[in-house]
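Table 4 source record.
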Amino acid sequence: KNTVSVNHKALVTRALTKYPVDFALFRELLQNSADAQAHTATISFESKEVITDPLKLHQCSISKLSFSNDGLEFINDDWNRLREIASGNPNETKIGAFGVGFYSVFELTDEPLVHSGNSIMSFQYEGVQLQYFVNQTTAFHKGTLIDLPYKADGTLPDLVKFVGFLIQSFLLVNLMEVNLEVKCANKTYPLLNLSKQRNNVADMISLPPSINPKSPNGVFKVQRLGRTDYKISIKYLNATQSAPLTLSSGWFSLGKQIVKSLSQSSGDPNDYTSTEDPQMVFRNAEDTESYELLLAYLAANWDSIKANTQLVESLKVSPFLLGYKHINIPQEHTEKENGAGLAGEASLYSSKQLVIVDNVIIFNQFKGKVISAPQTEILEPFYSRLGVPNLTSLLKQTVYFGTEVDKPEETEVLSKRVKERLGLFLDNTSKQVARKSLNFDVKFISQIEFKRE
């Protein structure tokens, strides 16, 4: 019998490096780090250039990529899988184990090096055959370090897309910190820092009986569910977001918009931007329109948001919705106009504190005591989905929803309430509501002792 010769270089270059997803190498490395129980993973690009303007990082020449984590060191099985193409992890229920996915590094390099503990494994081609070498070193590395010297100098990935990808990935893997940096000849530029802070111990959740715990092919089985609250922090160099941003669909766009909108930013490419809670975001927004743009983006992505029922319930009680108090809508505005009269105090509220102004006549009677949602065709449906009621429907549910004043003169209160009831009649509000309102007024009037001059 004869052995078939294999051109390793052609196999690796033409097949094993061609993953059908963006940033496949980084997906693999981040998941490997999580599988190794790492706390932190760091992506480091190296350039031999002297860079003084961070905006020039987008076009600088990159000669090397390094990836490191502080997880568990490699054991013998890990080293064996690394050198055996397609052996992968025998445990099929675990994703991200070093196997075929590792060979995507050969898209960038012909000489990858892996350093874990006191061991180093390096690869290089001899002709078209891929060889590996194992060495021991006194330099101990906690976790894993992967060095990938480029075949030929290249450039950084599209930083806007790459930062968006890292944010998305960070939310989906069990890592507490991810860093991105560029080491230039003169200085190191930290580009991105992502961190999580666990706020509570996981609460165990029972699996609903209607859900099949096994995946269709039987590879995965859900044994238990847990819920843990995390605080996510994002800090990035402004220069990474210098490329134009659009509201195009997809996770990259979502990541970009989170970075662009949920932040306080000076706009200086040399400065760093950190995300904060919604109140801080709002206080540092250039104007209310900027914050409305963020809400409009969430509204446009409602189909994706509503699939996460836990997220929707959280949004319903979170004070992140923009509202206006003491809005001055002129009496001549008998029909609602987009943005009409939004000249009041703007702040953030929860859905239970807001109303949607669907009738200006009624609103003019109560504008001192209600907080209005922005009057835009995009935001009003979004607010409604989060439980913000229309003003007219709220009136139908409430017997009395009028102006309140502290220790008023009885005649002043009576005068204001008569005007409010008149507004209800003029607007053809249901007779039942009007009748209840009048009954309330009769009881009120019967308790008033009018003073005689």
